[in-house]
From TrEMBL, chains A, B:
EC number: 2.7.9.1
The family this protein is said to belong to: Belongs to the PEP-utilizing enzyme family.
Protein name according to UniProt: Pyruvate, phosphate dikinase
Role noted for this protein: Catalyzes the reversible phosphorylation of pyruvate and phosphate.
Annotated binding of Mg(2+), by residue: 746, 770
Length: 874, 874
């Protein structure tokens, strides 16, 4: 017997259920579940995602048994509906929709009204008593089928529709009558013949087979692949296909169609939210072609249907205990549900909804925390327009995705991508966006569209990405070819700065000051709940008192990485640093370092004060010395003039210090093995600052970190140096400060010999940036020439500099922890690479048994939440 | 009870034995063993190396019990000799000599005639009836004790001796009479008082304690530390101290002293070899102050003593079954042995002696193979003067260490080091060398001295280092200050080229053509024996048919690494390569690659022919493309003119390809993941060549190697590419060629995920150069600024690019082998980094279970021998 590829639903009973998402896809599972809980759903059947996978591994052929099972299911469907597929008198029409495990809105293909042909259309007209409706459905079918299945560009059909509307002098297609639509059907069929060289397929069974194939194929269209890449969806999953009896929103003014959320997905407010169109089919709403009406108006227009909808809302939220994103059609005042799924929401909404649902008793605290995706809350930490700034908005659109953005206007997705690659901040300005624009939307700071509603493509996608978006801003006039738009009397050309505010819908000329967000309200509360669950500590990478303060405000429990070299560049001190580098001997270096010391001491004092009571991990000098010396003749000239150091001397030094592979050169603790006086100065600065503050009553907890250790003897030697300085300073000041000396584990050899190193280290901090560079042999600065292709090809699932390479670098981290603890049971371990703020990497850190992660200050809330997720899921 | 620190020997019985080298040091063990086998040895006692170690860990204080044990042993010694230490009438005098586990000639200190003072010297004079002898001994004692123990420079004493000789108008110190020597003793004592502020110590017990301390201290003098570093002797070992009753070679013309080898340590010939001086003490021979007489003359001068010596020779060789390096003193025609140890020998001698001793039945084949140190045979593979070249020698010295060298003359060890660091080949020219010169000798290509014999410092050290050396070349007149020497009518200034031939003793002006050596005679035979024992295969790294032929002649069993990029530079092909790099698209690249292919095919044909019947591992393109493009404006200009490619285009490409860390950049298989056409071309060239030759009856065994794999998917993709090309070419030519596709393991990630990789690899070749660079995070090209200090400080025992870092990189190799074999049991594994020719690394490879090592052609014999040692010792 062949495998079960097809699952039927209808008559209040479904073969599948809501938890079968992997098998049936999200849409299929939702339809099955709604059927089972007696929500009105047109009957139909779902072809499994396994069938799609099998289709691809089977050389794009149907798996054995699929055809038979489809025929059987169609028979059941005919019985359930009481109509026959292809019946000339009263035809059963079906929709064919994709549905993957997770929603990929607009990425894959759909065909409605399938089963129509030159004969059945007449039967539909007579059985419905509505000829206009029948031909409207047929022209829609030809267009969708033509576009999706036969590859005829939809522009060709739309042009004919526009021409017809112009000829009839109407502005909406609902104003076209049956005769117009009949004519249009003929024109459409001609287009298909001309473009494909064959007539539009008339046989409903053939139509079905072709449509199912097309849905399977659409899994691998370019935009779907791009979407999956961005959203880290495995290419192996495949899509389900849902074949469902049509209900018609386009039968007249007692019909309609809409999409809605059970709560506001933008703000999270507990309110009906959505849009509908009278006398329309579903695609009209999401395509952004006609601007739909707010759902609340439905109460007035079709009170009966609205009441049904209201009841369904409540049932669904209670059943799913989460916000639902639904699609419905009203056929002659009767409501049919076509889809329900967990609603995508902005981070702000996710927080609000989780918080509210916990307060409402719908979910527990643990679930509330898990409902807020760490990846997403980064949005809440994005810039906003400074409330103190004054500006005039030149236009107002829909507040489709919150946050604010400043950038140069560009008018195509390609330009957005190429400008962004050059490092320009851009705002993508489009009449409406389409799935092809996905790359450009990703590259832009924000998106501004002229048409489309809150559930238009631009709005949905932007919210998913956490990009700020202003949608449906009708007052702007876009000239895409001319690369400009006008609004009011203003002309904005490509490259002109604009600011958009996705929270209010405002569009502003020029650059408005943005401010950094802060934690407050429900978000702060949810993070507090997260803190109750997480076991990983969260620290921040911060080099200045200001950054440290931000981090502390965001809940950092210490500083995991203070890069002292950043202090070397500031103001006058760079001169002393250069003097040190140019010195001929130890005495010369020491003299110059003496000048740097007071600055360093001051910096450390500032940090210690802000972080009072919390540990501050200070990494001693790490970069190669040539980073402090100018290199080009021009720069050498400039520095020479400013500093009074002879050009030749500077130039010679730069040449002398030149390295072929600076990443693997004379840096980190190697500097101190050859020039111990550098770390000595830094140790003095640290302990002088610490002792002074301790004396003043400030609780300081310094942790001195030696970078780039590869051999325990390096650490042994330098720990002794630090300990000696500490002892001397404490002796001199008469103050005792508790401190630790530890090391970065950022070279494979350090991880491999972590047992030897742990004998001399009081803590390990995994420097996964360098560890990734060395373990993979990939220079981050040079990887641009091949790494994107590697990710594209799936050699790496993700950029290993963004999310830790668990099977390679991860082994080294695990090895480092295990070996380190084998020698020093209570060894404190953390991570301070940029992976420290990446949720997947944080989950890995939890698994690897680290004590803390350290990340940039603005990622601290993300890390707190991710750590809670890791603890709850682990 | 305290530990036993002191071991007595005398009266035909010793507390220690010959195998106690670790405890007693080499000298102490030799004295004990000789005593036990009834060879005449003056009695004495040995203070153990453990006492020295304890002394250092005990804050430079004697360990508990040592003083008591020394007093007891001295009592026994007095009984054995029948004289008392400090006795005014007939004093016992002793020598105090260092003796570490392994010989460190001239590195540590010795004091003779200890026990003399203003009173006992009179007793010695009267008891010996030889006043001259007594005062000669006393002045020697003051000088040695003053120098070694009290830190008065020996130059101060020597100056007084020279003045005295001048005043008396004699040229040898034996010509000074007792009165002269008495005066000299007074002058010497004055020098000590002036220099040290106290009188020369008169109390023999104090003298002894001070002398023992001084020997302990001499373990850590600078030259001893340098010597240990060069010879890889652990600093922790410590030295033994031998206190032994004096016998006197300076009592008259029936006395003497000498050093000898039981066979010729330079050629290995079975002949008496050594030197002696009449009426002298031991130090006179090795110091090179008086030029000694060949040992054979002793037969004439002191036939009785010579006969004793001959007997001892035979006894010792039979007992030790190895060449002995001995020191003896003749006191009134009676022979006393002062030392025996395994004789250092040149590689040539080691081979000859091992071969002869096997033939003589003294040792078995296994021992014969183990007697030849792999590190050393490299010497035999060093350049010789081309026998076809004609030249006139301007001088002839002693052929002290074989081989030939060409270099610029320099006159101090410091200059030798600094010139060598600049990349200059130098010959160190010295009147005589001293232990302080060790660094300069190491840096030089060869050493030329004006005085000193075959056992002088220069000769012994040079042989140990495998450096060519001409010693005792009396006809050259060196002006060290003026940095020049004259010989005949010629003036040779610093920087002038000279050639020396250590095999003949010739000194030649200018540069003589040198030739590479070949395997022959006993050496070839020993290597054949080695092959019987070894289990590791030995291959060579060779890129050209010529190198492959050299490798095959040296016994290579295949090519382990052919770097195809070397072929890219040759002749015209670089133009096509540049055209490929500059191409705008795939087609352009393919067109250019088509031009490169015929060259590559030819190269491979050449290699396959030479290596017929043996595997040839071809690594596909590895270096980043910018290596083929000029970089400086000057070079760009040149190439632009020559190639007709526009300057700007070349320049732009160079900038575009620039990398910050090329070592970690777009190279290796990454090139082929982005530009598959490159490897495709190479695969065609390989298989077209292989199939053509196979058709002609040549047995070809290609092994295609993919470099820099970090992720199995890279290999999976590229193996498929190679397999496809192979199949196509074989199909087309109708010839089947067996081949393998494998990978380099040269990134930590590759080793860490070797199980995944092995699923797609038919062999692994560990690229330990890159693996060391990445695991340690050290760029070999940039390491010069800190790695020497790391080795100096003992952070790394040895340069990890020379000898594999077993505890770090070694773990990755072991992991790679284990994980690889866990998936593919019969996985072939090898090493092709430069470590493949390093004996210690080869021993590691044996332990790690590799199948073969691959090294440069000239190292193949070294590797064969080292592999045999590894198998025999493992």
């Amino acid at each position: 017997m062949s495998k079960k590829w097809v699952y039927f639903f209808g008559n209040g009973k479904a073969e599948g259920k809501g938890t079968d998402k992997e098998l049936l896809g999200g849409k299929g599972a939702g339809l099955a579940e709604m059927t089972n809980i007696s929500i009105p759903v047109p009957p139909g059947f779902t072809i499994t995602t396994e069938a799609c996978v099998e289709y691809y591994s089977n050389n794009q052929q149907y798996p054995e048994g699929l055809t038979t099972q489809m025929i059987e299911a169609m028979g059941k469907l005919e019985t359930a509906v009481g109509k026959n597929f292809g019946d000339i008198a009263c035809p059963l029409l079906v929709s064919v929709r994709s549905g993957a495990r997770v929603s990929m809105p607009g990425m894959m293909d759909t065909v409605l009204n399938l089963g129509l042909n030159d004969e059945t259309v007449k039967g539909l007209a007579s059985s419905s008593g509505n000829e206009r409706f029948a031909y409207d459905s047929y022209r829609r079918f030809i267009q969708m089928f033509g576009d999706v299945v036969l590859g005829v560009g939809h522009g060709k059909f739309e042009r004919l529709l526009t021409d017809m509307k112009r000829a009839k002098n109407v502005d909406e297609d609902t104003k076209l009558d049956a005769a117009d639509l009949k004519k249009l059907v003929d024109q459409y069929k001609d287009v298909v013949s001309t473009e494909t060289g064959r007539n539009f397929p008339q046989e409903p069974k053939e139509q079905l087979k072709l449509a199912v194939n097309a849905v399977f194929e659409s899994w691998n269209n370019q935009r779907a692949k791009t979407y999956r890449k961005i959203n880290k969806i495995p290419h192996e999953w495949g899509t389900g296909v849902n074949v469902q009896a049509m209900v018609f929103g386009n039968m007249g003014d007692d019909c309609g169609t809409g999409v809605a959320f059970t709560r506001n997905p933008s703000t999270g407010d507990k309110e009906f939210f959505g849009e509908f169109l009278i006398n329309a089919q579903g695609e009209d709403v999401v395509a952004g072609i006609r601007t739909p009406n707010p759902i609340i108006e439905l109460k007035t227009v079709m009170p009966e249907a609205f009441a049904q909808l209201e009841k369904v809302y409540q049932t669904l939220e209670k059943h799913y205990k989460d916000v639902q994103d639904i699609e419905f059609t009203i056929e002659k005042n009767k409501l049919y549900m076509l889809q329900t799924r967990s609603g995508k929401r902005t981070a702000k909404a996710a927080v609000k909804i989780a918080y509210d649902m916990f307060r409402e008793g719908l979910i527990d605290k643990r679930t509330a925390v898990l409902r807020v995706a760490p990846q997403q809350v980064d949005q809440l930490l994005h810039p906003m327009i400074d409330p103190k700034s004054s500006y005039d908005a030149v236009a107002k659109g829909l507040p489709a995705s919150p946050g604010a953005a400043v950038g140069k206007a560009v008018f195509t997705a390609e330009e957005a991508e190429s400008w962004a690659q050059r490092g320009e901040a851009v705002i993508l300005v489009r009449k409406e966006t389409s799935p092809e624009d996905i790359g450009g939307m990703h590259a832009a700071q924000g998106i501004l569209t002229a048409t489309g509603g809150m559930t238009s493509h631009a709005a949905v996608v932007a919210r998913g990405m956490g990009k700020c978006c202003v949608a449906g801003c009708g007052s702007i006039n876009i000239d895409e070819k001319g690369r400009k738009f006008t609004v009011g009397g203003h002309l904005i050309k490509e490259g002109d700065f604009i600011t958009i505010n996705g929270t209010t819908g405002e569009v502003i000329l020029g650059q408005v000051e943005l401010i950094e967000p802060s934690l407050s309200g429900e978000f702060a509360e949810i993070l507090t709940w997260a803190d109750e669950f997480r076991t990983l500590g969260v620290r921040a990478n911060a080099d200045t008192p200001h950054d440290a303060q931000v981090a502390r405000d965001f809940g950092a429990e210490g500083i995991g990485l203070c890069r002292t070299e950043h202090m070397f560049f500031d103001g006058d001190r760079i001169d002393a640093v250069r003097e040190m580098i140019l010195a001929y001997d130890v005495d010369g270096r020491k003299k110059a370092l003496e000048k740097v010391k007071p600055y360093q001491r001051e910096d450390f004092e500032g940090l210690f004060k802000v972080m009072e009571g919390l540990p501050v991990t200070i990494r001693l000098l790490d970069p190669p010395l040539h980073e402090f010396i100018p290199h080009t003749d021009e720069d050498v000239e400039k520095v020479s003039k400013a500093s009074g150091i002879a050009f030749d001397r500077l130039k010679r030094k730069a040449q002398e210090l030149h390295e072929f592979n600076p990443m693997l050169g004379h840096r980190g603790c190697r500097l101190a093995v050859t020039f111990p006086e550098i770390y000595e100065m830094q140790a003095y600065a640290i302990f002088e600052a610490a002792c002074k503050l301790k004396k003043e009553g400030v609780n300081v907890i310094p942790e001195v970190m030696i970078p780039l250790v590869g051999h325990y003897k390096e650490l042994e030697e330098l720990k002794e140096l630090v300990d000696n300085v500490a002892a001397e300073v404490m002796e001199k000041t008469g103050v005792k400060v508790d401190y630790l000396v530890g090391t970065m584990i950022e070279l494979p050899r350090a991880a491999l010999t972590a047992d030897e190193i742990a004998a001399h280290a009081q803590f390990f901090s995994f420097g996964t940036n360098d560890l990734t560079q060395t373990a993979l042999g990939i220079s981050r600065d040079d990887a641009g020439k091949f790494l994107p292709q590697y990710v594209e090809k799936g050699i790496f699932k993700e950029d290993p500099f963004v999310s830790i390479d668990q099977s390679g670098v991860g082994q080294l981290v695990e090895m480092g922890v295990a070996k380190g603890r084998s020698v020093r049971k209570e060894l404190k371990t953390g991570i301070c690479g940029e992976h420290g703020g990446d949720p997947d990497s944080i989950a890995f850190c939890q698994k690897a048994g680290l004590n803390y992660v350290s990340c940039s200050p603005y990622r601290v809330p993300v890390a707190r939440l991710a750590a809670a997720h890791a603890a709850l899921k682990g």
